[in-house]
Specification:
The complex is a heterodimer of chains A (about 60) and B (about 725). Chain A is mainly alpha-helical. Chain A has two helices and no strands. Helix content of chain B is about 65%, strand content about 5%. Chain B has helices at about 1-25, 30-55, 65-75, 80-100, 105-130, 140-145, 185-200, 215-230, 275-285, 320-340, 340-350, 355-360, 380-395, 410-430, 435-440, 445-470, 475-510, 515-540, 560-595, 595-610, 610-640, 645-660, 670-680, 685-700, 705-715; strands spanning about 150-155, 165-170, 175-185, 235-245, 250-255, 260, 300, 305-310. Chain B has a five-stranded antiparallel β-sheet with strand order 1-2-3-5-4, with helices on both faces. A three-stranded antiparallel β-sheet of chain B has the order 6-7-8. In chain B, a hairpin with a 4-residue loop joins strand 4 (about 235-245) and strand 5. Chain B is flat and about 90 Å long. In chain B, about 45% of the residues are buried. The chains are: A mainly alpha (about 60), B mainly alpha (about 725). At the A-B interface, helix 1 and helix 2 of A face helix 1, helix 4, helix 5 and helix 7 of B.
């Protein structure tokens, strides 16, 4: 009974597992996007284009 | 209160999320995922520590926690059910923004750390693959039930239609086969990447993007209906709909009745298969539909010998003749694989005639089979296609046919360019030191750099004048100027062949006969070469006093070694240019000009009999060369040096001459070496010559493709290309 409840809970929370592993297009996009963000972000920081945020959050 | 809220959000979106994700993996027994999550988060965090150390900004410039969080988010959130993923991503993004304020981070550094996290997560996902990335077979009956389709699922198809789309095979109660295509979360990215790759790789391809999965389904569905309406056998649309729970779009289509060519046995091949296949494809092309997936497993033939097509997921409407020829070549290959090359060629000649088949043979190459040459090794496919081309040539009684270049770039050329630049960079770094060059560039005079850019780009106008002299018709100067800008782009991506094709197409669009357009393009190129040779010789006489054949530095010193190496590169460039240019020009004359020799000769006579055209042709080209030399003078001035104009003309024309013939796009590498050597011969110190060359080449070659692309788009929109 407890095991059934656990399985039902898992089915609601998680996606079903496929039989085989797949390489997904979203990861190819993520790889390129991540590389671009990291490269240009840190190049800009190295060039002095961005500084630490000094905003005082109101209490 | 607000302060506490921000702190709580920052913690919830980072630490709490990390612990929850790891805890969930352990709780449901996904041990492999848990190990990957920990390892990826660790690598991303360490990467940030290294970057922070290099930048000297501390964690504020490269926050490890954000990188680790996003790496884990990329890996773990996809394992959650679709409806709750958005909430987890929301938590992570809000947590990251809150962290920027709470921890006083550098915003761009935080963004870069997020990028590193996404990069790490995506790399691990690509390396190991994802379980549960798409719909699984047990879920399909439920999808079909929701769409009201009564069918029995057979299993996943052996080959998905495109990356990111999952196909299942099913059978309806009458026994007819169904294709169930599930366009899930990854379908738009898969289509986008496939189209982008095709656009970047193949000439004459366009980047037509459809970003929503419903657009893809509607497109495929519309073309199936259109094909059926035109009497071409195509799948019949059974049902289509969006599944709310999984947010997937599902298309169910009934395959046309019959047997796929790939399943035919030798004695089951109908006698009229080849002819019927060409008829069916021609009907489809008459409707301006191309499939881009003509293969033995996508063509079916029924008992009556009628041929139909069952793959429309990559199809395009309103296709031009070039796209149709790609399908034609793919059909020839498919038929060859089904009935054998000899029979396929013989019956295809009967069906479409020798001229059309002869025109297809150069297209029989792996690129036209990009939709699915299957898992066969590329060397075996190349051999098979070479044999098919030879069989075609033998039966047509013509010389063996070479494949036309379809790829925009050749890998060998790219490798050559990369290595040439890498070699030059290493040489300059080792022998002069990049510090010196950086110092010179940092102190460059911006006004002179702008002047270099303006003057060298203004040559598009003088080039346009020269182009207008190559034809007897009156062409408007503005589109011609834009054409010259566009040639900066085509020259970079496709070399001389692409540039010539662009010019010829432009002339054709303005009503010139193909032979006249081709000969005008050749007249323009040849006159440019003549002007360069004459100016080089004249400048050599006039400016010989400006040349200093002196060694840079003392004997055996590093500047002297650099000087000798650069001369060596230039010499190699000249040899390679001649070696590559002579056969190329010969091929151009034999393959293109000779069949239209009479018309081309007539055009040349017409141009030659018009003094105003001759004047435009040569004055335009000469002015271009002089302005380019002035531009080089301004590049020198920007780094605090100068050289006599005669010497600069010599350097520019000589370099343009070998750059135009060199077998690499834009003469990359060879031209840099030639400019640097030439300027040092004019007495410019090596470090200044290198810096001036970098500025000059950026202004003349590496930046212009940016607006060249814009010019090309404008010309295409206005039907000039």
């Amino acid at each position: 009974m407890r095991s059934e409840r656990l399985e039902a809970w898992k089915a609601r929370l998680l996606v079903g597992r496929g039989a085989t592993r797949q390489r997904l297009p979203r990861d190819a996009v993520g790889l390129v996007l991540g590389a671009v963000l990291a490269t240009f972000g840190w190049l800009a920081v190295a060039g002095g284009a961005s500084h630490p945020v000094r905003v005082d959050v109101p209490p | 209160m607000i302060s506490w809220l921000v702190v709580v959000l920052a913690a919830a979106g980072t630490w709490v999320f990390l612990l929850l994700a790891l805890g969930l993996c352990v709780l449901v027994g996904r041990w492999g995922l848990a190990v990957r999550v920990v390892a990826t988060a660790g690598v991303a965090a360490l990467g940030c520590v290294a970057v922070a150390h290099a930048l000297g900004t501390g964690q504020a410039g490269a926050p490890s926690l954000l990188a680790a969080t996003f790496a884990v988010a990329v890996l773990a959130i996809r394992t959650l059910a679709a409806p709750i993923r958005i909430w987890w991503w929301g938590l992570v993004v809000i947590g990251a923004v809150a962290s920027v304020f709470v921890d006083h981070l550098v915003p761009l550094g935080a963004l870069a750390a997020v990028g590193l996290g996404v990069l790490a997560g995506a790399t691990v996902s690509l390396a190991f693959g994802t379980l549960g990335g798409g719909t699984t077979a047990p879920e399909v009956p439920d999808l079909l039930r929701q769409l009201g389709v009564d069918a029995t699922v057979v299993g996943p198809a052996t080959r998905p239609p495109t990356w990111g789309v999952v196909r299942f095979e099913a059978v309806d109660p009458s026994g007819a086969p169904l294709d169930v295509d599930v366009y899930g979360r990854d379908a738009p990215e898969g289509q986008f990447l496939a189209r982008l790759w095709r656009f970047l790789w193949l000439r004459r391809s366009t980047l037509d993007l459809r970003l929503r999965r419903t657009d893809h389904v509607q497109h495929a569905m519309g073309l199936m209906l259109w094909a059926n309406d035109r009497g071409v056998g195509a799948p019949e649309v059974v049902a289509v709909g969006r599944i709310a729970a999984s947010d997937e779009v599902v298309l169910v289509a009934r395959r046309p009745p019959g047997t796929r060519l790939v399943d035919l046995t030798d004695d089951g091949i109908p006698a009229g298969l080849v002819g019927a296949s060409w008829q069916a494809l021609d009907r489809l092309h008459d409707a301006q539909v191309v499939l881009d997936a003509v293969r033995p497993d996508t063509i079916v033939v029924d008992a009556a010998g009628e041929v139909a097509f069952c793959e429309f997921s990559r199809a395009e409407a309103m296709a031009g003749p070039e796209d149709c020829r790609g399908d034609d070549a793919a059909l020839l290959v498919a038929l060859s694989r089904t009935v054998g090359p000899e029979r396929a060629v013989r019956q295809s000649i009967d069906a479409v005639g020798p001229d059309r088949l002869g025109g297809l043979l150069p297209l029989v190459q792996p690129q036209v089979l990009s939709a699915g040459s299957g898992s066969r090794p590329s060397s075996s496919v190349r051999k098979e296609l070479t044999a098919l081309r030879e069989e075609g040539a033998t039966q047509l009684g013509i010389e063996p046919v070479e494949p036309v270049p379809l790829a925009r770039v050749q890998v060998a050329k790219v490798v050559m360019v990369v290595f040439t630049f890498f070699g030059l960079w290493l040489l300059v770094q080792q022998l002069l030191g990049l510090g010196e060059i950086r110092g010179v560039l940092a102190g460059a005079i911006w006004a002179s750099i702008v002047a270099t850019l303006v003057i060298t780009q203004a040559t598009s106008l003088t080039e346009a004048v020269s182009l207008s002299g190559a034809v007897t018709a009156d062409l408007p100067i503005l589109p011609l100027t834009l054409l010259r800008f566009a040639m900066g782009f085509t020259g970079m991506v496709g070399g001389t062949v692409a540039t010539t094709a662009t010019v010829v197409r432009f002339f054709q669009r303005h009503g010139l006969d193909r032979a006249v357009a081709l000969s005008s393009g050749v007249i323009y190129s040849v006159s440019g070469f003549i002007v360069q040779i004459v100016l080089t010789l004249v400048a050599l006489v006039v400016a010989r006093g400006d040349l200093h054949f002196e060694r840079e530095g003392s004997s055996g010193s590093k500047p002297e070694i650099l000087q000798l190496v650069l001369w060596g590169i230039v010499a190699l460039g000249v040899i390679a240019a001649v070696a590559f240019a002579v056969p190329r020009i010969r091929r151009l004359v034999v393959d293109r000009a000779r069949p239209h020799a009479e018309a081309a000769w007539g055009n040349l006579r017409n141009v030659a009999s018009r003094p105003d055209r001759i004047a435009r042709l040569f004055v335009g080209a000469a002015t271009t060369q002089i302005m380019m030399a002035v531009g080089l003078g301004f590049a020198l001035r920007s780094v605090g040096s100068s050289a006599p104009l005669g010497g600069l003309i010599l350097v520019c024309t000589f370099t343009a001459l070998i750059g135009g013939m060199a077998p690499v796009p834009g003469g990359m590498g060879v031209m840099e070496a030639s400019y640097i050597s030439g300027l040092t011969l004019l007495g410019v110190p090596e470090d200044l010559a290198v810096s001036a060359t970098l500025i000059y080449r950026a202004a003349t070659t590496y930046l212009p493709p940016l607006w060249g692309w814009g010019a090309m788009v404008w010309l295409r929109r206005h039907d000039d290309l």
